[in-house]
Structures
1.
Amino acid sequence: MSGTVRGGVMLAALLAAWPSGRLAAQVSVHIGAGARYGTALIRDSIVVPIELRPSIAPALLLSVRDELRGPWAADATLDITPSGLQRHEAGSSFDAGSVTAVAFSVGLRRTFANGLTGRLAIGGLAYTGSSEGAFRDGSGGLMPLGSVAASYARRGFTIDARYDVHRFITPALRAMRFNNPRPVHRVALTISRRILGTDGAP
């Protein structure tokens, strides 16, 4: 089962598990899109400097949010980023295929004054859709993910500045004696809209 399908199944199960009364009264569903930048997946300089880096790419999000007591809310988010890969070597750049990063996270949000919100989340990320280069022997499975975000919400729309980090390694890299997972930092700017339910935003 692909990472995209697994994430969709988890989100569907989450929606099904919520009692219908809570879904109507306190739970909201949001969709969003934006752009994401990520640091290099691979960096080496044994002979010449080499990097494998994802290009700036669209970020697509679907989240379910449950209002808790006071300023707190819990949420679950499915985050999909299809991106091209660029290999940078000795001052030149080459296309190196494409890959899709699929992340699923659960988090806590806290609303502050004037529609400002902070979010802290943990989850997992998997790469799918590529069988070339570093992914020729598989994607490396599910990688732990940590995420923080700051948001501004108004009239059902939310602007998010998101940051997350995970450690990247694949079987092909291990076979080449890249034994230490590399931290990959990602930042995204997204805008989302509430499509179902209500929340505490102005």
Note: The domain at 3-196 is CATH 2.40.160.20 (Porin).
2.
Amino acid sequence: MKIQLLGAEDIPAFSKHLHQCLLENTDPALSVYAPFLKEEVRSVEVIEKKCRESWNRPLHEKGWERVWAMMDQGQMLGHVDLNSGRMTTELHRTYLGMAILNPNRGKGIGRKLLNHAVEWAKAQPSLAWLDLYVFQHNHAAIHLYREAGFQEVFRRDDAYRMRGEKIADLAMTLRLRS
């Protein structure tokens, strides 16, 4: 297994991977970790378009994104992404997203991807904060983020309603530098 920064040539495979991750989230047998209903899951083509627009943008422009995948024999097992906010005034912050395909969870892949993304972000002089959102019931992810130094900033109760449940969302942050 190895972590790989994804480039333009990886967009089709990544788009299928992300689409699969989002569809897994709609499986009633699995835990919910993203706020999308099945009919709201973006198509592979929409994901590809977004990647083509954001992956090559420099960090000083809003709308940039970088994605790393854990690869094993040409297969994407999971990924972590860092992206800018929507406003130029928040380019000192980056947002983290991560998804590990269900069969690959609990094997340390998330920890390796998270550590890689944190180290990359720390090496970028323009970035001062790393932010993320996680559902309050996702105890494994919250534990992982806390171990990496993330602090809970606030909890938004009843943020989402899915599968008959009220889901609270936690905002967490990691200071990279002053």
Note: Residues 2-127 form a domain with the Aminopeptidase fold (CATH 3.40.630.30).
3.
Amino acid sequence: MADEPQAGTVSADQAMMLLLLDGPAELKRLQRNGAFKPMAPGRYRLVDLVQGYVRYIRKPDAGEPVSAAALAEHLGCVRSYLDKLVQQGVIEKRSDGRFDQDACRMAYLKHLREARKLSPRGAADVALQQAKAELVQLRVAERKATLIPGAEHEARVEAIAGVILSALSSMPAQCAPVGDLPARRKLERWVTDVRLAIAKTMNGIADAEDEAEASDGTHREVRAVSARERVRV
């Protein structure tokens, strides 16, 4: 007969009894969330009903989708800001206009973390961590005796420079033939040129340290160069 139920199908009342649902509202909620679909108004295919319900309850994110107002309250923001997040692609809206609360919460937290990295405070935190890491490296190197105090290094450099300059100054008298004044004058000019070149190079290094430029184009503070570090002729 035409009114006889099709084999392998159940009515809405039978579906609620089979799945132990509280009422029609819960049955409709499962349909709305995609657990199963009716094959006809008020009729369900038994296999699809049972398998769909089992798959639904096994999903780790089987939470019920929420409205925009509920999601805004959950995230602690106003509705207009939630609409802005949707426009920016931070969170996604379902085809039915509702939201997956868990997925939206994770996406919103990720958005906040990325925004913090780009903020001045975030950049300051990164710079502080880098400075701390550099300080640790310096302390480790000092413990391993791979570093020496700056004053000791400067004293060694000055001692070596003094020997070189003294040797250069005495070179004309030591190397020029006795009585050969033109040769001695030629060596003296050469020594003067060498000392000028040394002074120009070292003073250029000192000036560069005075106004070292950072990667972002700004000037950073560096250690002041003492007068004795500048090589003079």
Note: The chain has a mean pLDDT of 78.
4.
Amino acid sequence: MQIALQIKYPTCLSDSIKKNGTKVDGKQNYQCKICKRQFIGDHALSYQGCHSGIKTKILHLMVRGNGVRDIAEVERVSIGKVLRTLSQSKYQLQSQQNYYETLEVDEFWTFVGNKQNKQWLIYAYHRETGEIVAYVWGKRDLATARRLKARLKQLGISYARISSDHWDIVKQSKI
């Protein structure tokens, strides 16, 4: 029984490759015929964080609501790999509409680094679709609420009314 592997160089995605000896640990080494760079195929990698598709998986799991530690455990990568992938991501929210009848503003907090560094995520969402329209990080104050208003304006989003859970800052900022 023969097993055929389709191996491509991860950077240029060329399938024009040749075997190029073995590494010290016995893994097959390959060389791209186009750019002459060496690599080990994904099938031979022992650390999952080096696989070419892991960044896409991490981002997909994060969007689906999984936590950093959960992603690291499920994908068998380090927490540092997950955090690096998230911090290097260029993901931007894309609103589905330009006008919303009602937007709701909500917030939650988390500690960043240590318990003295409390950060708030303040976001506007559309309840009917469950879509997060815009968000900002900061303190739970008037300046952050104004930054959310500016972010909505920057994205070209208009709305008839905005509501919150009795957070007076939203009324003061006249979002």
Note: Residues 142-154 form the longest helix (13 residues).
